[in-house]
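Hi,

I'm pasting everything inline rather than attaching a file, because the server keeps stripping attachments. The sequence lines come first, and each chain or strand is labelled.
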Amino acid sequence: MQAVLDILRDPSLEPAQKRQRLASSAEDSLPRPGVGTRAQGLLERGVLCDLFEGHAPYRPRYVLPDYARLMERGSEFLNLTPPKDLFEALNALQIAYRFVPSITGYPVYLGAIDELLEPHWDSVDEATATRLLEMFLIQIDRTLPDAFVHMNLGPRDSRVGRAVLRLERRLQKAIPNLSLKVDAATPESLLLEAIETALVTGKPYFVNDPILQAEWDRPYGIASCYNTLPIGGGSHTLVRLNLARLAEGCPDADTFLKERLPEAVAVMGELIQARTRFLVEEARFFEGSFLVREGLIALENFTSMAGVLGLHECVENLGGGCMGRDDSADALAERITFKARELVKAQPALHCQGSGGRLGFHAQSGITDDVGTTAGVRFQIGKEPHLFEQIRLQARLQGAFDAGVSEIVLFDPTARRNPEGVLRIVRGALEAGMRILALGSADSELVRISGYLAKRSDMEKARLDASLREETVRLAEASARNARIGERPSRGLER
Amino acid sequence: MNTATIHRILSPSFVDGPGSRMAIFLQGCNLRCLFCHNPETWTLCSSCGACVAGCPGGALELAEGRLHHDPARCRECDACLQACPRGSSPRCQVWEVDRLLGRVRREAPFLDGITFSGGECSLQAEFILEAARRIQAETGLGVLADTNGEMEPGTLEALAAATEGFLFDVKAWDPALHQRLTGCGNARILDNLRRAARLGRVREVRTVVVPGFTDSEEEIGAIGRLVSSLGPDIPWRLSPFRRQGVRTQGLSEPDPARFQALVQVARAELGASRVLLRGDQGFR
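And the predicted assembly:
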């Protein structure tokens, strides 16, 4: 009762935000599925974490609807006929977004917007098309105020993609998150447009399309914090394993690799399995959803995800030295990462046909409460080696992750005068095997927190406890402090 | 063994030529420009020891008459540069061509090219000639030389043949002014500029507008006519003097309106597209 009243009385929350918290409170009054004593112990120690999904999953964590099918066939449930022009296409998408479930209630995937809209671009004149697209982007920012809302572009060139990049550069909004898939045929001029936008806004991500497409036997999209998942599917759940916590008090790397890690991954696997079973078999999401009925998603395109984080501190805790400074630490980091992948892929995986009947493996980018634990497999902020060595090692580690991983590089503001130079480095990173790379400029108003963006000025408002549209800004403000995000090095003037 | 004394290497640099570059700053200069931003590159370290006491990290040591610098303890606070009485740095390192090539090969996937700068890089031309030949042969990366032009004509011709060209400073047009501003006349420099242009190796001419020296219409107009005479498409980069890092007292930064007026003079001589300002891409 008191918890409910506390939510109702919180003056910093809008009514819709209160409703969201009330729903979570009701859900969490149920026991968590599949939590035995071993799992309970690991959850309490913070080794495992279910990332605020709630105790009783009744909708998948990440849903990537096949919006192309919506464009082709319309939707009976939404009373939409197939769009015939840009007005109808944008309207259909805005309507559909309201009905895509997630943990926060906001859609984490907005589709490959260039492919969806390009066929309708000529239905109006260029100026009107651009203006409509601008209103669409502003509408998304204001009505889907959640920085995990993610739009995809590329690898093909398009007028829509270029317009989105130019508009985002001008509008400078945190939402939507943006990814650009890149392959050998992506034109240089489109990449330069994207780099100029990234040096102002911190987005898009640059995504290594050939490598990721080879990981998945079906079309994939980038959702939320760079989760790489099948289109027309998604992920039931994501549970993460904090490698740093797991390594605390462990006598040596061998014990970690041969005993602790296999045990913990097995418990994580059980937890994931129990959550997936509850969602599919108890809450019966796939039997009720119109998205399934109308073919916008299908159970066979879903997977469940196991995440890891805290690799940097894990290596330190095992006495392995400092990643990025010692070759032996780098080698250990690589062994741990690929061992974790091997173990995750060996777990039983219920309802995971979307990824070949195996769990997806994900480098988790951290949550607000993480203090002293570095995101995913990144270098601890402040301990990054020289930029090119950073890229080289991260590219190797990223090779373990099929379901999402990313690295962030901030450039000195002089890079804005020389996007061609940044392009060379982006190309070098992709050629080295980097899967997903975010870049930005150290002085931008938009700050990349872990996998999502927030405005500096909004974080200042959150610090002062003002009422906010975006829930994620509150997370961002605390994260920026806890994870020392302001101390990321600025690249381009280094020895 | 062909070696060079290197002040430092920046990689990547976004301001020392087109694209992402490794900028190699060689130690030693033959001019003494009043507006120099990095006077610590002027001379080689004489191991006088004046910097040792002021090093907060204890990275400097004078042993058997030679100064030693420990990079592991260096905080890069630049206290030693401030303490040096002769425009040097105890942090310079002697590099062999092989060692440099090792680094270039490793970083090549992330680079568009290499730029030798300084100091005045042509003072160590033998090193550049060998390094440039090997860099181009072994990595395919192009090499540029950022120079003040004060060198033997034969050296210039050799560098022109070994590299993709010069980022060429013209400090002043008027010989007396040049002498006052840099401590050196400019007859040979301007001859070398014309020689490099005839060889098709001037990638960009660069001039800093320094109030009291190069901020007159006559001076800017004359340099503009010179650049114009070099050929139809060599760009000229104009930068306003900035105080940061400069030791000379009494120099002021140009008033923005005055600088813009001089840009107009430059554009009148060369056409707008060939006059580059901060932020313009112009390297070809």
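The helical segments of chain B are 79-83, 97-107, 125-139, 153-162, 175-182, 187-198, 217-230, 256-270.

If the labels don't parse on your end, tell me and I'll reformat.
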